[in-house]
Amino acid sequence: MRDLVLAAVIAWIVIQAFRRPWIGILGWTWISIMNPHQLTWTLRTMPIAAAIGGATLIGLFITKDRRDYSLNRENITLMLFMLWMCITLPFSMLFDESFELWTRVMKIDLMILVALVLLHSKRHMLLLTWVLVVSIGFFGVKGGAFTLATGGSYRVWGPENTYIEGNNEVALAFVIVIPLMRFLQLQMQAKWAKIAMTVCMVLMAMAALGSHSRGALLAIAAMGLVLWWRGKNKLLGAIVMVVMAVVMLSLMPQEWWDRMNTIKTYEQDDSALGRINAWGMAWNLAKDRIFGGGFMVSSAGIFAIYAPEPLRVHAAHSIYFMVLGEHGFIGLFLFVTLFTMVWFSAGHLRVKGRLQPQTQWLSDLGGMLQVSLAGYAVGGAFLSLSYWDLPYNLLILAVVGRRWLVRKEWQKEKEEPLIYWPEFLKKRFEKKKKVPSL
Question: Is residue 44 within 8 Å of residue 68, measured between CB atoms?
């Protein structure tokens, strides 16, 4: 039954993507981030993302909907980064393995650029945020409940066969999405909805702690610091954060504390030493080869040449050193520049959005995007998630939001419902206007 329902939803998205390709973008994002087909028996091997992506690309050229091909600093920098990865590909030390990952990264980045063309309204931004929150929140809320039920004795893992399969990776995903949940909560009117979202955010934080990820703990701390700094009442905010931290941390078992304490004694931890060795390898490789080593440089042969400890082969587990080793200093410069631009665009939304009542929601969005970016910048320093979709979706929200604000779209845009119903359902749900009797 679950497989049939999901197949029907996917079929509807593919059909709609031809006429309204922005729906295809939302569907692509949902499939790419959440991978719901991996939870079924019959759909997990089907090219669902390719079907939705193909329909969306066709719809891009035949739709009558608005399209925006304007250039801005973010999409120009992203295209330069993509171009540089194409230039470095032929110089890859392991070409076959690099080509496979290059193909996947190009598909992701292409759809990010398509999203920047198709998404333009407030409804689009809110729906995209909901897609991201639901896609990761499904695993986070469930993982938080699991952590509470087991007292944190077992680790929370991500969905299999995805970018966030590992405990460290899924923890960072939870951390990035929590501020987006807070943004949605700020837009809610109903008290029960606000309470429900608070519960979900607490469970997401518990799931991040339940992953036993040291990087997630540092990312949460960084996010908390940014939230506190952004808050109006810093004393009250500090008290609330401290109380919540004490309550949640008191629920974690001794083995969790033992693992977190290795942050102080990293020189005695084999995993930490392996990462540091991989960072040294990436640095030496980038100094020797201007194009880097290409994708997939974590191999014994490359470590034997460039690593400080040749026999200690380990993945970089860092968005920065991963890009450095694979695409050299130029690639790292483009990557860091890209997300620095996103940070300042989000800051622009936060400051300028509060000037008008109609744009206050954009101020909320910009502030929470910066909190998410802080979590990604800190947590990503210890994880290999340089090319995953979710951070690039933050870019989409920042760019589309800034474009919406600069062009004063709130003066032109009609308020539209968040949910787009198919015509046959729309007729059933719409209430008929009754003519008063004389």
Answer: no
